[in-house]
Amino acid sequence: MATHDIILRGGLVFDGSGAAPREMDVAVDGGVITGMGKVNGKGREEIDARGQIVTPGFVDVHTHYDGQATWGSEISPSSLHGITTAVMGNCGVGFAPCRTEDHDRLIRLMEGVEDIPFPVLTEGLPWAWESFPDYLDFLGEREFDVDLAAQLPHAALRVYVMGDRGANREDATPAEIKEMARLAKEAVMAGAIGFSTSRTLNHRTSDGQPTPTLTASEAELTGIAMGLAEAKRGVLQFVSDFNDPRKEAAMLRRIVEASGRPLSVSLAQADVAPEGWRALLGAIEEAVDDGLPMAAQVAPRPVGVLLGLELTLNTFSAHPVFREVANLPFEEKVRRLNDADFRKRLLADKPDTDNPFLQVMLRSFGKIFQLSDPVDYEPGPERTIEAIAAQRGVSNEEAALDLMLERDGHGMLYLPFLNYAQGSLEPIRAMMESTATLPGLSDGGAHVGMICDGSFTTTMLTHWARDRSRGPKLPLEYLIHRQTQKTARWMGFNDRGLIAPGYRADLNVIDASNMKLHLPEVIHDLPAGGRRLMQRASGYTATILAGQVTHRDGDPTGAKPGRLVRGAQAAPTRAMAAE
Q1: What is the helix (H) or strand (E) element at residue 240, kind and residue range?
Q2: 3 state DSSP class of 58
Q3: H helix count then E strand count, the chain
Q4: What is the DSSP string of 503-551?
Q5: Interval 225-251: pLDDT, tens
Q6: Which residues contact 145 (CB under 8 A, 6 or more apart)?
Q7: Rounded to an integer, what is the distance from CA 255 to the centroid of its chain?
Q8: Which residue segments constitute the domains of the chain, with CATH numbers given?
Q9: Are 123 and 217 within 8 A, CB to CB?
Q10: Which pLDDT tens digit goes with each residue over 216-229?
Q11: In whole angstroms, what is the distance from residue 454 CA to residue 487 CA?
């Protein structure tokens, strides 16, 4: 009688293809799937999946673990949410290639763009590399609880080739473009999964300077893309303000037409132009219909800032009186904020700042919501601070302060700034239903004191497939397909994302009926004692990576089978023959 490494017994298997689920066993041997259906024999380990669902491991195409991967082996929070493969190096920011004299420059860019504090990066980064292949070699020696793939970041590349001129956003010369193209080809030949860039004013260094890539010319972007074309490998990832969506989309289309390389771009609804996303998506859909490899990355919930007394921002961050206690130890800060005299002074104070976000957004109490258990990322207007204040008969400021002081000062507020212009997720549903979109934008590993969206995968399973009450849901098999086979194949990971014989045994066993997303919390486990937001979930019975159980009931097992994935991966020959 055959013995297998692992057998998952009797689960409802969503194979990742989008097909209807089937109840069956799944056998695993040597890190790959070897049997499906009624599996005879025994497993050295058997997992009872009856009454639960079985999915491929999730593939997240948009994370920022570039620093964390150099000092840590647990790629959390993503690894706590069923993700078994994560792609980092998005938005044009990262740490290679880099000369010694530019270390601080790239750290300040990552600090400003992705809210990872300077002391954390200064202490944590070992800087045991200069070139991008060197960086890959360093990562290639490390072990993780997910597989990681890295993209070549444009900002680092530009500064490496152009020095101060690149940082100051001067135009690249033809010779500099040729050199960037050469290095891009070198990077993908060494195993970079692609190239990323940013064209948004939202991305600035911690001292306020725009990202070096903001105004890079079409000639520069096309030249770099042609470096990937010469290598015949690698994807392109863009983020842009899209002030003129059709003009910008036309440029991206020309880059794809010239290079033939797949290109994805971030897509979200902005308050200032609530319908603007439709033109961009329409242009991408038109390109896809014409046979071009283009896609829009979309998020399954609002992109929102968390506000709280232990976080980067709160509703009083711009108030001079609050600054008196801002840097006190947390417990002392909470004690002072509960003091009647101090509260009176604070609530009578006014913001004093030139920062438009702090001036306007942190005063928009009709758009700030209480974040409470159970977590709801599609809250109604009755959950706004404005509504709660009216119900309590207090000022907006007092209501906000009291809510943040809940749970011994750990209360959090939620300020959606993208994808919630009309107080509904219907625009997101339309984006997610488009064949030209991919799930993305989780930013796992970034925005450690403001945003905690590495849990996007859990939101898709709970909110969109099970709990949504303010509009139509989406089929579970469709959502799982998008987060597994679709994202895997977009990146060129053809050996995963599907439950079929010969494919990698990257799997989740999920108690979908009882799955729950927990409130974000602050932990202090980064280098230099740095804090970060962490969000956990109940319901992940087991996560399996390359045939090893990395998580049981949401907790790490200590297994670290994850490795750096160098470039695209071929489909297994056994699976190809079966297909």
Answers
A1: strand 235-240
A2: strand
A3: 21, 24
A4: SB--EEEE-GGG-EEPPPEEEEEEGGGEEEEE--EE-EEEEEETTEEEE
A5: 999 999 999 999 999 988 888 899 999
A6: 73, 74, 75, 76, 79, 545, 550, 551, 556, 559, 560, 561, 562
A7: 25
A8: 3-56+502-556 (2.30.40.10), 312-418 (no CATH)
A9: no
A10: 999 999 999 999 99
A11: 16
